[in-house]
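Lecture notes, continued. The same structure-token format from the folding unit now serves as the input rather than the output. Read the line below as a description of shape only.
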């Protein structure tokens, strides 16, 4: 499909940024009920536009197949009536969440009578760069609006028709509710230069969130001159402690890897304490479920289906039905392996020993650390946050699933009665 003609993507993004900044000023002062109403109108418009959205998606799917997209990419791209309804329901779920804007984080009165309040406020203009999934257009737009931010969305070329149809419905809903149309903008070109223009739009875009493959995220982190909220890899671990319940360990190991292998919360390395009595049922259950296991000679001796592991495997995010397996000498060795090879995303311990669990939870430096639970729960919806705009593995601002609260910052309000500093 031909790109929309634009002589200068820098000028395009600059214009979108200025319009977004104006819309953000309006949104920052919009009461919570008004923002929620705008989102409910947008959800209704998504449902009313289902036929147009599905027709646009069918064209993207045809192009995707012709261009050799992988089955996994095509699955992410595909929309059907159930997924369109899921988008609409997701927007309504965001509309029902508590608005963080205006909440008082801290309040104190100084000896001189000054009253100080730390209050949540929107970040401003959020740029979201993503691939494949048209539902991100709806999720990201809804989260930004409810948190009082304007959004500039740049989807992948493979989903351009779908994204345009979803975006048109969102804007229709916003306008019907009296919200500014520029609150949610979609970059109308597939020129990759638009990504570069967004990454260098200092003063116009306040934060960029990349959602996609490792190549996209790496480019954003390398080139951005505006703050980035992202994670690069999801090299997640599940550690089976010697005190783990055998049946729970078998069930959770399979779920953590095989429920959905292509999501960032999938376990990529299984660590098993040498003190755990019988790891064979866990390996057998994984192999029987269609998982390719990779391990050293010690692991291979436990199941003939295990293939040889390489050093690179410990640092690989497979996003596939492949799992590296290693036996370790206790929780400290597991923690050391995670520190050496993990990506600070999600790591879990399976154990009935509360003291061992506490050591793991307090020592592992990841955005999400779990006890007796599947790493597949690393998701904003499962955390009760509604949709998520992404998962952050950084140490500044937000960490873990980022939803409404993660899209806000704060400012100090100082209330005086005439105090002058001596």
């Amino acid at each position: 499909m031909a790109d929309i003609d634009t002589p200068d993507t820098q000028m395009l993004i600059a214009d979108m940024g200025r319009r977004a900044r104006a819309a953000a000023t309006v949104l920052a002062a919009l009461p919570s009920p008004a923002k929620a109403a705008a989102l409910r109108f947008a959800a209704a418009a998504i449902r009313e536009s289902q036929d147009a959205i599905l027709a646009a998606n069918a064209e993207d799917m045809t192009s995707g197949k012709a261009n050799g997209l992988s089955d996994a990419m095509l699955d992410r791209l595909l929309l059907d009536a159930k997924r369109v309804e899921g988008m609409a329901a997701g927007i309504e779920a965001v509309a029902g969440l508590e608005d963080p804007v205006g909440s008082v984080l801290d309040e104190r009165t100084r000896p001189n009578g000054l009253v100080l309040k730390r209050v949540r406020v929107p970040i401003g203009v959020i740029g979201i760069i993503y691939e494949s999934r048209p539902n991100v257009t709806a999720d990201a737009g809804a989260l930004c609006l409810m948190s009082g931010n304007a959004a500039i969305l740049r989807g992948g070329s493979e989903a351009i028709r779908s994204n345009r149809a979803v975006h048109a419905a969102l804007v229709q809903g916003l306008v019907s509710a009296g919200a500014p149309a520029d609150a949610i903008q979609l970059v109308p070109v597939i020129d990759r230069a638009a990504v570069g223009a967004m990454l260098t739009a200092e003063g116009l875009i306040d934060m960029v969130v990349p959602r996609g493959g490792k190549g996209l995220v790496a480019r954003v982190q390398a080139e951005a001159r505006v703050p980035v909220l992202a994670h690069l890899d999801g090299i997640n671990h599940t550690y089976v402690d010697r005190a783990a319940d055998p049946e729970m360990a078998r069930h959770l190991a399979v779920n953590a890897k095989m429920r959905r292998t292509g999501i960032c919360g999938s376990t990529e390395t299984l660590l098993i304490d040498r003190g755990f009595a019988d790891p064979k049922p866990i390996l057998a259950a994984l192999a029987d479920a269609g998982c390719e296991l990779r391990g050293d000679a010690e692991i291979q001796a436990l199941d003939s289906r295990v293939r040889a592991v390489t050093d690179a495997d410990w640092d690989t995010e497979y996003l596939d039905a492949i799992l590296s397996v290693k036996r370790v000498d206790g929780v400290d060795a597991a923690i050391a392996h995670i520190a050496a090879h993990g990506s600070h995303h999600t790591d879990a311990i399976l154990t009935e020993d509360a003291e061992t669990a506490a050591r793991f939870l307090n020592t592992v430096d990841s955005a999400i650390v779990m006890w007796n639970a599947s790493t597949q729960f690393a998701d904003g919806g499962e955390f009760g946050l509604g949709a998520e705009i992404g998962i952050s593995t950084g140490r500044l601002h937000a960490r873990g699933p980022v939803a409404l609260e993660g899209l806000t910052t704060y400012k100090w309000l100082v209330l005086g009665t005439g105090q002058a500093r001596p």
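Point for the exam: The radius of gyration is 24 Å.
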